[in-house]
Amino acid sequence: MFYRSCCFLFLGLTPAWAQLVIPNTPAGRTFQAWLEAFNSGDRARFDAYYQKYEPTKSADTMMTFRNTTGGFELLSIERSEPLHLEFRVKERNSETTAIGKLEVKDGELAEVTSFTIRAIPKGASASGFKIDAETRARVIDGAVAKLNESYVFPEAAKKMEESVRERQKRGEYDSVTDGDSFANMLTEHFQQVSHDKHLRVSFNPFRLPDAPGTGPDLAQIRKQMERVNCGFEKVERLQRNVGYLKFNMFADPEVCGPTAVAAMNFLAHADAIIIDLRENGGGDPKMIALVSTYLFAKPTHLNDLWERKSDTTQQYWTLPYVPGDRLDGKPAFVLTSKRTFSGAEEFSYNLKNLKRATIVGETTGGGAHPVRGQRIDEHFMIGVPFARAINPISKTNWEGTGVEPDVKVPAAEALATAEKLAIEKLSSK
Questions:
Q1: Is the CA virtual torsion 234, 236, 240, 241 positive or negative?
Q2: Most CB atoms closer than 10 Å: which of 26, 51, 150, 385?
Q3: Residue 295 maps to which CATH number?
């Protein structure tokens, strides 16, 4: 059960005309700027790229991705049009190859409208991006069936179906032949009705597993998590013995529990703690419970999840035991941004309602419905929000509103603000 889903993407066999030279087109120039910034590893160059080409995004997540891959070597340009580019690259830190697709606006700056990159699975084959009318109809039928079966609000599922069926009748999808574009279009249309940021349709040119049990095994997941250190990016002691922890996902504790325990034990003797969730997109409620346990001395009711299909409620409490010392009683601060989402919002919302931490930063993204990926066919999936969070104190959640910080400042100023507040708190004792 996870609070988030994300999807990258891509292609098939290299066409005979594939080339290595980046074309001098709007898409090519934008890609060149990204690749140079990415391979430099320089934060200032990343910031400059994002300010110019992707102003709604942050360099932080991409910096982590860059450190994991070591940069990319360009292997080929697979397809080039003025506003569209498909390419193949190889990680510098491994033998992994990946395919990407970039689309830009028609304008002087050529801002990015879509940018996806994905590792090519070992031994994988692809059927390309092109889809036909039969595929479009099958995907629409499959998506609305999954929503009607499991979406957390059945009346909203019906409204989403009505909206998309009406668009289908008007022929709005008839000219769409790119699978990725079709998935994005359906996502947009479903979200226009539901306003649910967790609900997404995704396309993958590689054939999806026939059944849920045929996906990556625990060993594969463990290897993937090791490469990104389970999302844990930084742990250190600041001035006046203020502990600082930054991590960007709540990963499965079965795989990443030891990493979380090591991070929390490093901070065991801090006099105050700052937890940075400004780039955290969510994850597993069990990891939320694990990290939260270090902040409480007694068993504490954190959150409930009600599932529509089974009409059952699962409670989440702090754990009876965690290795090492706890930080209960120590001042705690949680940093948030508009990119803080899903499970990271739950963590913030729980602590705010329990008056256990001061939230510093920006209002979060507003996604409180856990999502489960469901297969539509060999290439399309839909992430269906199947449950809703119910806080035991507020009796509601943060869906659509986000978590309001106690101290509202721009995300870039949140750490300095929280550090100042922590020192003031410690000095007053």
A1: positive
A2: 385
A3: 3.90.226.10
